Structure formats: structure tokens, C-alpha cells
Amino acid sequence: MAESFPGRKTWVIALVTSFWTYRKTRNLAVDLFFKTIRRLLMSLPHVRRNQVVKYILNKPTKQSRKLLHNTTLPHGSQWNYIAPLENTGINKSMTVAGHWYIKNIYRHQGHHPYGRGAHAYVERTLDATSDLVLLYIHGGGFRVGSSTMYSDTYIHWIERLEKHHDVKTSVLSLHYDLAPEVNWYRIMEQVEQAYLYLMALGVPSSKIIVGGDSAGGFITGMLMSRLKTKGHPMPLGGIMVSPLVTFEKTSASYTKHAGFDCLPDSLLQQDLSQLFPELNDRPNDDVMWRQQCLGQVSPLHADMTHTPPLLVTYGQRERFANDVERYVAHVTKQGVDVQVISRHSEPHVYVVTPLLASSLRAWASDASRVADWCSQRIKQSDVY
């Protein structure tokens, strides 16, 4: 009787199965696949890549949300840094949700996939294990976006801060409710609650930097003013990436860069009464009153005196470019310490979106400068 040996097919299945079930090799394969896809995308002309993002943002809200979420999901070894923040908060009336980005957090996930067992560990140890905590508010015109859409950039910041500055960093990427389901005032309550939640975990405000891009940059600017008005401890600083700072559409760059930039008219010309219900109190043709009303809730007109240092980044070929320059002049006049990162050939939010940058080198260079600024801020604080 012939001896029985596994056939070639059995060996192949066994090798593939063992390869795929081993976390490191599985992640290596997935990372290699996505790296190849990125190289192919980056080979497209710059304006074409901007148009891909514009196409997604130009879709109806529900479709745009789904497309943006699915195309920016973390992959492979990125999950080693990610743990969901389970709905929690400092009171029952308001919860905080989002994702933690912390190096090797997967080791504390227990038996749950993708870090779902790590939340309690983070809450117990956040202050002791982090030199710096970054609360980040994603953009998306208040209507789209998710807390996992900038994994590349969060991880780049974490690694840069540890390897080059010996600063251990945790990022809380916030999930907040979006319009039209909620209005502006609810969004601001959620963001304020997230900031207070970090302090309730024992993290001093002098360890916290608040940042955001586009609409998230708008929220960041208004949060600074809100915290000051309410008498809360102020954060160590603020990062505003290509921030929306006004609802005016009169700047030269708004029209000049419309063809190149990734921002579609449909997102910029949304019905603002869904964000600010008070706009329904008067007819739409009362332009002066609407401008006055919106000015009261815009960073460009906010009182920023006695607020922490800011880092503002923008691309000189984005539609917000001139508005951002006006904002920098506004806060500088009010005595705020402002540093600016800007690059000539770049569009909206290129600092946090590699696909939108003119090259991966340009993205990595300016993303590193953001991390370097954070290091400078924390090393000047009283807790480092």
C-alpha cells in the first residue's frame, strides 16, 4: 500500500492559511497591497487626484459619507495603533465617541478584534503613558467625514514625535454628529465634552493640543474662544489645517482655485440654516442680517485674545487660501502666537491627506513640521 502524503494543493492551502492567520505577515501583505495602490494613484496628475476627491464630496450627503468612509478605512498594520473609543463621557446627557490612535494599543485589546478591549486600559493609563494628547476634529463641511479617515497622518505624527523628539503621543480622533441630523450648537457641545472628558481622565490641559482640518479647523478656532469665555483651562495649543474661517465667498482664491482644488461648490454652498436654525427667522434676501449672524459664529470674527499659540497650515492653491491669510492677520493682531505652514502648489488639506499632496515627500515634510511644532509646544509646558 502506497504511503499517503499531502498533495500539492493541500500544502498550498496550508501555507496560505498559516501565512494569513499570522498577524504580522497578514499585515505585511495588506500593507504591500495598499502601498502599490497608493503608488498607482500618486502617478495620476495632481489635478486629477483632486478631482477624484471632489467627485466624492460632490455626491449627495449619504452617498458621500459612505464613499469617503469606505475609501479611507485603516488597513493592515495601521490597526495596531487603533482602538475604538466606546461611547462614554463625564455625564449621562452627553457621550464621547471616536478612535484612539496609540502605538501598540492592539496589545491591550484582549480577545476583541481591532482594539475593542483596549478602551478601559486607555482610560486608566492615558496620563501616565502619554507626554502629549492630541484631540483631533475631522473636516468634511460639517456633513461628511469619520474619525478614521486620517490614519496615515496620525501614525506619522505619533512616530515622528517619538523617534525624533522622544515624545509619546496619543491621538483621540473624535466622532461627532453631522448636519443635517444635528446643528452647529450640538456639534460644539460634543467637542467641548470631548475636551472635558480628557481632563476628567486626569490629563492636564497643558498636555492637550486641539486640532482639526477644514470644518474641523473652524470648530478648533471656535472652541478656543468658547473655552476662554466659559473659564475652562486652555489647551497647550491649536492646529488649524486649511481651516474654514468664514462663510463669505468673496475672496479671490475662492474663484481662482475652484478648478484645481478638491472643494466642490455643492459643499461650500450648503443650506446653512440646517447648521444655524436662527437663519430661518428672517427671509433669505436679508443679506446684511445673515452676514452679521454668521459673523458671530465664525473664527474670522472671533475674539481670540489670551488664547494659546496656533499652528495654521494651508495650500496656496486652495479655495480658502485668502481667507486663511486674513485669519492669520486677524489673530496676530489680537496677540496670538501664530506659526504658518504653507506650500505654493498644494490644495485643501494636503497636510493630512497624502493623496491630495503634490507628492508623498511634500506631505511627509509638512506633516513632520506639524509634529515638530507639537514637540516644541509640549517641551515648553510645565508638565514635560
From TrEMBL:
Alpha/beta hydrolase fold-3 domain: residues covered: 134-351
Entry annotated with the keyword Ion transport: no
Source organism superkingdom: Eukaryota
SUPFAM superfamilies cross-referenced by the UniProt entry: alpha/beta-Hydrolases
Chain segments annotated as coiled-coil in the UniProt record: none
GO molecular function: hydrolase activity
Keywords from the named record: Hydrolase
KW Ribonucleoprotein (keyword) present: no
PANTHER family, sorted: AB HYDROLASE SUPERFAMILY PROTEIN C4A8.06C (PTHR48081), ALPHA_BETA-HYDROLASE (PTHR48081:SF2)
Protein name: Alpha/Beta hydrolase protein
Naturally occurring in which organism (per UniProt): Absidia repens
